[in-house]
Amino acid sequence: MLMTYSSSERYLLIFHRPFILRHFIILHYLPIIICILYPFVFYIGIIYIYPCINYFDYTVNLCGGPCYVFDIIPSTFDLLFNITVFETIALLGNIVLVSRVLHRKHHMKQQNKWKKNRRLLIQVLSITLLHNIVLALMVIFMLIQLFSTTYQPILVDLTYNVLQYGVYMVHLLCPFVSLIGLPELWPRSVLRFLRRLLNNNAVQPTIHIPLNTDIRTLQQLRTNYTR
């Protein structure tokens, strides 16, 4: 949910910044509170209040899962609404955002504004891309299992034994991916290395010096080259 909301807020921050600043409490703080409270209330209710008996097996992956996942109605609602709908909205929102940014790139005359928006776009899109790679695959595989009439052991194995751990890796990698759009937080040694790398890759002019050139001429050429 937070990723879905961040896609909408990112669009407003780039293209309608005055509008979101005028309604900052409603459009910023209130959605964040809802995104935090809704999953907490929903999963507390569906796991501990829903009329079924939880049996956790500590010898299997994810301890077997809560009992509601074996009931067709709550499990389908959880998959289609809480995961698929929000994931689809976030993905479509990012596509629309990138398309509009690329469309308006050549029409923006204020270079400082474009540079600021570009950094914001790179920072948040890198996080969203990392998140969507794993979660989108999980949603696709789970939807195939839900609507398929035959058992898919390969998809089940990938979903619950591989991609489930990929979700945790996404959260661990998010701080490092966020640094892509925040070069001011990079260590000085990294910045010096990047500057040196760019300088070494830059095309330098060459000067042809005859072998019989005297020392005074060489010093003069060196002074003119370093200016």
TrEMBL record:
| Membrane-spanning intervals of the chain | 21-50, 79-99, 120-147, 167-186
Domain of life per record: Eukaryota
- Keywords recorded for this protein, A-Z: Membrane, Transmembrane, Transmembrane helix
UniProt-recorded name of the protein: Uncharacterized protein
Species annotation: Adineta steineri
